[in-house]
Amino acid sequence: MSFNRREFLKAGALAGAGLIAGPMVNLGRFRLFAADGPVVSARAVELVGRSMVIDMLGLLTLDWPKLWAWQRDPAAFGPADLAALRASGVKVFHPAVEPDDPNPYEAARDWLAGWSRLLDRRPDCFVRIESGQGFQRVRAEGKVGVLVGFQSSSHFRAAADVAAFHALGQRVSQLTYNARDRIGCGCFEAQDTGLTPYGAEIVSAMNRVGMVVDVSHCSERTCLDAFAVSRQPVLITHSNCRTLTANPRCKSDTVIRAMAGRGGVMGITAVAAFVSGHPPATIDGVLDHFDHVARVAGIEHVGIGSDVAADAADPRTGVVPARYAVRGMPPARRVFDLTEGLIRRGYDDRSIELILGGNFQRVLTRIWGEGAGGAPRVVAAG
């Protein structure tokens, strides 16, 4: 998800309250969101409700002016906004972006300052996830969890910046975006030169402070190099399987196995081009990617990284942009449709709970620890 700071600044209980919009229907099934929408089984609703659902690339909104309004004036985040997030079924969001700015250092500080303003001033709605304790608070308090990260590490000017950004609240950093940079190669580079010596320094610095290493957009060799260098599990927060979809953004079985071998978890996306190379993308295509990772790496190494927000559909027309158009899996109800699909494919309750978030909760807690989040967080300017 590319985010341009200049454009942004210019623009200036089950799963939660109001989840069930329609009445219970026969045979233990429910209607969600709209009276004429598809029904979902009581088992699926109950599984979503009791699971720590974590979307490791989940946006609170794709409406950037709305997000900026929330961050500028946290009081603008109202009851309807909170209800919409809860209704999605997601309990913890990782709304990471690529700064896409000529000065990524300043852009990243601005982004973190906006999140700090919103999260710190609305503790009635949000829990900042910085350790295993944060997940427990989400469950106990019924609030929305947010963990802050980036889809590149270009804002690190030197290895020492990793600790500085950790102090500002950053907890996840993707090593590269799509192209080559000082750290390594992105997935769309024709020549894969892998992780650089400087990139290895960044990985080591991230390990020292407890920042999660993410290789979702990295090239094959950069991924494998990162697994070799890191002393902690390395995550693929949002990608799909190249065996099923021949797209450079998707991961080979070699990378998937190596990720699992180091204790990592891979989040499956709902981006149509990564689901299938032959439109239309369907929910069965999404489920095929979950099946494939579970078969290649084990059920303990797959989760959700949808790369979408519940409000992806145009509010006037209800049409979902082609990028997010997955037949049978509208963005607003993606967690419920996914859960129903996993049930259809014969996954047991424990496996579904691991996929919905248990796996990411386990590995994130391992990297961060159970405590309150380490060193005191400082406030970025902006």
**Poorly predicted ranges:** 5-27
What's the shape? globular
* Adjacency order of strands in the biggest sheet: 8-9-10-11-12-14
By DSSP, the count of extended strands is 15
CA distance, first residue to last residue: 22 Å
Rg, rounded, reads 19 Å
For the biggest sheet, the summary is: 6 strands, parallel
CATH class: Alpha Beta
Question: How would you describe this protein?
Answer:
The chain has a single domain (5-12, 50-368), classed as TIM Barrel (Alpha-Beta Barrel), CATH 3.20.20. It is 40% helix and 11% strand. The chain is built from 14 helices and 15 strands. The strands form 4 sheets. Strands 8-9-10-11-12-14 form a 6-stranded parallel β-sheet, with helices on both faces. Strand 6, helix 6 (132-141) and strand 7 form a beta-alpha-beta unit. Helix 2 (42-50) crosses helix 13 (334-344) and helix 3 packs across helix 5 (104-121). The protein starts with a helix and ends in a 14-residue tail after the last helix. Mean pLDDT is 90; it is low at 5-27.
Question: Summary?
Answer:
With 382 residues, the protein is an alpha/beta fold.
Give the topology, please.
Elements: H1 5-10, E1 24-25, E2 29-31, E3 39-41, H2 42-50, E4 54-55, H3 64-72, H4 79-87, E5 92-93, H5 104-121, E6 126-128, H6 132-141, E7 144-146, E8 149-150, H7 160-167, E9 172-174, H8 197-209, E10 212-214, H9 220-229, E11 234-239, H10 253-261, E12 266-268, H11 272-275, E13 281-282, H12 283-297, E14 302-304, E15 326-327, H13 334-344, H14 349-368
